Automatic annotation (TrEMBL):
Subcellular location as annotated: Cell membrane
Top-level taxon of the source organism: Bacteria
Main location: membrane
Name under which the protein is recorded: GlsB/YeaQ/YmgE family stress response membrane protein
Length: 86
């Protein structure tokens, strides 16, 4: 996720991505608003790192690409957390 979005952009995009990822993974009942934002922001970092490994320019992707990057990373993060909890 592009660091140029600013803190407000990170919160909005991260929150939406975290919430949708929690719906996809079935963990929405366990998470509140703050945890959704944290999962989304962490997911953005994870997704950006993974896409950079494949040579994808995540910095110039725009807001929609940043959202999709956050969503990808959030789903990966929640999958890992669910595996550890079991």
């Amino acid at each position: 996720m592009s660091l140029s979005l600013g803190i407000f952009g990170w919160i909005i995009i991260g929150g939406l991505a975290g919430w949708i990822a929690s719906k996809i993974k079935g963990t929405d009942e366990q998470q509140g608003l703050v945890l959704n934002v944290l999962v989304g922001v962490a997911g953005g970092l994870i997704g950006g790192f993974i896409l950079n490994l494949f040579g994808v320019d995540v910095a110039g992707g725009g807001k929609i690409f940043s959202f999709l990057t956050c969503l990808l990373g959030s789903v990966i993060l929640l999958t890992i957390v669910n595996k550890i909890r079991r």
